[in-house]
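User: ok so my PI wants both of these folded by tonight, can you help

Assistant: No problem, let's get them done. Here's the first:
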Amino acid sequence: MHTLSSLLELAAVEAKGPRPSFSRAHLLLAFLTIGGRGMIGRQALAREAGLGEGAVRTVLGKLREEGLTEVDASGAHLTKRGTELLSTIFARLTPIVMLSVSPIAMGKTQAAVGVRRAARRVGSGIQQRDSAIMEGAAGATTIIVRGSKFGMPGGSGDCEAEFPSPAWRLLRNQIAPRTGDAVILCGAEDEIRAKLGVIAAALTLL
């Protein structure tokens, strides 16, 4: 049975091969994009996952070899095995939510994702921030859900009260955070880098 870990291993450096031109975040974003769109062409997938032409061919080839996708004249889509893996991933990660610019995170474009039962793994939030920056993001903010409140690691116990923003309501409605979850917000110059950043940050908690 495929797991998130086995999927991410597809981005590992092969002993005798060249270094991949894509990261684990690119690979997961591509997989989630295929699952979210149902069917997507190679060029569209390259644009939405921030991949070059060669990289998208490699990613699709690896996913096809693992039996997770099929590619035909209409585009790429998930197989039954791929759909099962997508459900497993969504048991741990919520779909990515795009935000209007808010004071919660830096950057022109902001994305957020919830990581189920991950609050106990959060330290200072620096690891998530650094992972997001490595993907080209401006930074990342990690929020811990305690009871019905959003809190900062080692800081505010009620972010909604201290940093008012319509974004909090959006997060509640679309991520539906639960006690013990972590929510990561990431900002970047464009949507792709915001998504890659928030995925890279989330992976540090899995």
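One down. Here's the second:
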Amino acid sequence: MAITTRALAFASRWFDEATVARVFEPLIADWQREWQDASPGRRARVSIRGLAAFICAVIVSSPSLLRTDAPSSVTNRVAVRMARFIALASILLMSPYLASAPESGWRAIILFSLVPSVITVAFPFSMIGAVDAIRRDDTLPSHVERALAAKLGVIALLFMIVFGGFVVQAGNQMFRAAVTRGTPPVRGVRELTTIELMRDPSIAHAGETTNAGGRAAVIRRELSKRAHLAILPVMLLWLRWGMLDRPRRRWYSPLPSWLMTPLVIAMFFLLNFIGINFARSAAVSAAVGVWLPALGFLAIGLITRWWSRAPLIEQGC
């Protein structure tokens, strides 16, 4: 059964040898035996039941991923790689604001208030270098690499939800107050936390699905933007991981992270621009256009995985 072979290969990539031998190998052996003993009319039902049991076993065994420790040399390398990129990108993003600061006395406040926003923008793209740092050591077992990547993805998602939904808003308010030299401005949609936006009464108004929908449309767009940014690190982590699974043929296949990162950034902003303008021209909610970069990266990731498996399919593997 090809499905059992792929299931066992999946378990071997994600779990340690002891878990595979204790949990998955007996389960798949019973699955194969039951399928062989079943009549042709019942084999489809056996396959579905075996797949459901395998999925349940994966869910039950998933906490072991959290207990899988990676070498400190690898985790330190990942942290340094991410911190270096975020610091460099933050400096580049803040430079125009610092150069045009109204007075030298306000520059420190402006710098401090911009930090959350620029970190939120730069953080997702640091995943590309992080994946390369994880997979640099060829001696690291596959399940340790994937456990570290899974934990990094969960941490990145939580970081973006908290930072992009609560911390950035306080920084935006501080920035506006610094620009107006201490005058507290009225809080706009960008200065409201995610919970405050979700509780806003205007979001429940019906029929406000276009760009001209007033406050409800603006809130929907802001919530969609925050949700999109929250999942972007996980999306880029998954995308880069799939690219590195492809067999290396030349220096540009796959592209090195120092070249891949600016290309992904440019593609993100290009797709974001196209999506927002398409939403305006099609008279649909701007929130729909915000998700175009995620859909584009998803399509690229699926194509990359299909391409990497094509040679194996041609060889009958």
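Residues 142-179 form the longest helix (38 residues). Residues 237 and 296 are 14 Å apart (CA to CA). Good luck tonight!
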